[in-house]
Design goal:
The complex is a heterodimer of chains A (about 280) and B (about 325). By secondary structure, chain A is mostly helical. Chain A contains 14 helices and no strands. The longest helix of chain A is centred in the N-terminal third of the chain and has 34 residues. The two termini of chain A are about 45 Å apart. Chain B starts with a helix and ends in a 5-residue tail after the last helix. The chains are: A mainly alpha (about 280), B alpha/beta (about 325).
Chain lengths: ~280, ~325
């Protein structure tokens, strides 16, 4: 046997092992361990205590509210995201770069600032505060405020996922469809949508996960009314402060499970449609 | 035929409004340590109204007293506010114009159906031998108390410390200021609310002594169990009066004034006072207080009106921007 020669492009074995171990340890400590602890604490009082905590009316209300807010915010942001990506990728117009920057705004602005801005606009002493109060329309400290905050923080997810994809695909196919006499909507449905469906799906899943988990902006606008305007993340904090550790970690476990479910759906679809996915990447 | 329709429509509208009148929901915006208290009070009041044929649902919101007042000013639809101190309801009256300035005269005993005081919570056996306010400034001792700017309980604690120092032989305002300055040098971290400070002291094991509401100290001993802590009563403290009020502008618009008033008056009944005492708040009812006397030792208590000239003055002198607290407290020194 000849002595093994290390290729110049290949790292020595000890380095690969060390780097691998460091990465693994990092993932274990930062990601896996906290997740395991959440489930361990949730089940600390036994399975019965866990289910009792889960079926508590205020907890159920918080789960419902979070799901409802996501159910409103995600479709709206999906429609918006497709429209924005379509406009940016397929057309040229003035201020396009500005629009792209604007879409990124929620990524760079702290959610707390976003919450406070809505207080400034809709609060009793805000711009529209007195008009709204006169007509008995409640935005702050009610569902509309929570939905607004959720829309703000999840605004970029779908658009950000689609824009690079659609720019990459160019506009040849749409132009072909147009020359063949297809209407704009038909072109979108038959040509564009099939090309972007994977990116769209990722965008929606990420958007949904973030919508369920949002804390900062919602906490400013919620009013924290137990059983009414407390979303799941806010309810976790409330239960923890109430010395109800099993309850707090039970809701935390559920929230974590919803996140994991999102990832599982994504992985399943990737596995199930692996061939199609590979084909669409060739575009 | 048309007339029948018309009558039917009127009847159904009447029926709808009648059903609404019997189905009332109230929102009580409160401060941090009253979570357990109002859960029980709300249930008792709902039962009492149910017996009269009305369905009343009461929701609660909890947080630092100052930030809760801020939310009400911004538009949180509170039928009643039950906060840690009068200055925070004053702020709602002044900045929000949601209730009259003389709100505190509308209910008995300064509109405070229960009182509390400031005590020391220490670890079992009192290893650092903390007996009175003077012991808190021993070198190396760590004191846990929330931020007086945001927490009601912390403002009562600060004033209790001030009052003790001012009442010592040869004590005066300057000596009191020096004492609270030394005291806050022993505070490693200022939490925003009472509950966060309690969780830091108990669950996270931070500090040697927690300046706490008496009720909060009892509750955390009960919740954390195992006799890991004990309460120390200093030689004197302060009479903390957490007041309650209906928010006029909101109850008039929601047409809930009658129920909201009944709810607050209910707090003064023997039944509610029992719940108050069982949650370690000091009841106003002499009979209930006597019954639970063992858990509420008597000690000399300063009052906000006699010793500090009322909340308006105390707030402006001590806690306003640039006030005494800002002069004495510099983080990290």
């Amino acid at each position: 046997m000849s002595k093994r020669v290390t290729k110049p492009t290949e790292d020595p074995l000890w380095l690969k092992l060390t780097l691998g171990a460091v990465a693994l340890a990092f993932v274990a400590v930062v990601l896996v361990l906290p997740l395991v602890l959440v489930f361990k604490e949730a089940l600390a009082g036994g399975v019965d205590a866990f289910f009792n905590a889960m079926t508590e009316p205020d907890t159920l209300a918080s789960v419902k509210l979070s799901l409802l807010a996501a159910a409103i915010a995600v479709p709206l942001n999906t429609v918006f995201g497709i429209a924005a990506a379509w406009a940016i990728a397929k057309f040229d117009f003035r201020g396009k770069t500005f629009l792209v920057t604007l879409i990124d705004l929620p990524f760079s602005v702290s959610p707390v600032v976003a919450g406070l801005v809505y207080v400034l606009i809709f609060g009793n002493h805000g711009w529209f505060g007195s008009t709204l109060a006169d007509h008995d329309i409640r935005i702050l400290f009610a569902l509309p405020g929570i939905v607004l905050a959720t829309i703000f923080v999840t605004f970029p997810f779908v658009a950000r996922e689609l824009i690079p994809l659609m720019v990459d695909q160019g506009r040849d196919e749409e132009e072909a469809a147009a020359t063949l006499g297809a209407s704009g909507f038909r072109t979108f449905l038959m040509v564009t949508l099939p090309n972007i469906k994977w990116g769209l799906l990722y965008g929606i899943l990420l958007c949904n996960a973030r919508a369920l988990g949002e804390f900062g902006a919602v906490s400013v606008l919620s009013g924290k009314i137990r059983g009414e305007t407390n979303t799941m993340p806010l309810h976790i904090q409330l239960l923890y402060d109430n010395y109800d550790y099993v309850g707090a970690f039970a809701v935390a476990a559920l929230l974590a499970m919803l996140g994991l479910l999102t990832l599982a759906i994504k992985s399943f679809l990737e596995w199930r449609y692996a061939d199609e996915l590979a084909a669409s990447h060739r575009h | 035929m048309k007339r029948i329709f018309f009558l039917l429509a009127v009847a159904s509208i009447l029926a709808a409004t009648a059903a609404q009148a019997a189905n009332i929901s109230l929102l009580n915006v409160s401060y941090d340590p009253t979570r357990e208290l109002y859960q029980q009070i709300n249930r008792a009041f709902a039962d009492q109204q149910k017996a009269k044929g009305d369905t009343v649902t009461i929701s609660n919101s909890h947080g630092g007293s100052g930030s809760q007042a801020r939310s009400v000013i911004d538009g949180l639809q509170a039928d009643v506010v039950t906060l840690a101190l009068a200055a925070d309801i004053d702020a709602i009256a002044r900045n929000g114009k949601l209730l009259p300035a003389d709100w505190q005269k509308r209910l008995p005993q300064n509109s405070s159906p229960y009182t509390s005081t400031v005590v020391f919570l220490v670890r079992k056996g009192n290893p650092k031998q903390i007996k009175d306010w003077g012991d808190l400034v021993k070198p190396g001792l760590q004191v846990i108390t929330p931020n007086p700017k945001t927490s009601g309980g912390a403002r009562w604690s600060y004033l209790a410390a001030w009052d003790w120092a001012a009442k010592q032989p040869g004590g005066n305002a300057q000596k009191a200021k020096d004492f609270v300055a030394r005291l806050y040098k022993q505070v490693p971290v200022l939490d925003s609310g009472a509950r966060a400070a309690t969780v830091n002291f108990t669950k996270r094991g931070l500090g040697d002594v927690l300046l706490s509401w008496e009720d909060e100290a009892h509750l955390s001993m009960k919740e954390m169990g195992g006799g890991a802590y004990q309460i120390v009563y200093p030689s004197r403290s302060i009479l903390a009066e957490p007041p309650v009020a209906i928010v006029d502008r909101i109850v008039d618009r929601k047409k809930t004034r009658a129920v909201a008033e009944a709810y607050l008056r209910f707090l003064y009944t023997p039944q509610a006072q029992e719940i108050v005492a069982r949650n370690y708040f000091r009841p106003r009812d002499p009979a209930v207080l006597a019954k639970y006397g063992k858990q509420f030792p008597t000690l000399p208590l300063a009052t906000i009106d006699k010793d500090f000239g009322g909340w308006a003055k105390a707030q402006a002198t001590h806690f306003a921007n640039g006030g005494v607290f800002d002069q004495i407290y510099q983080p990290g020194r």
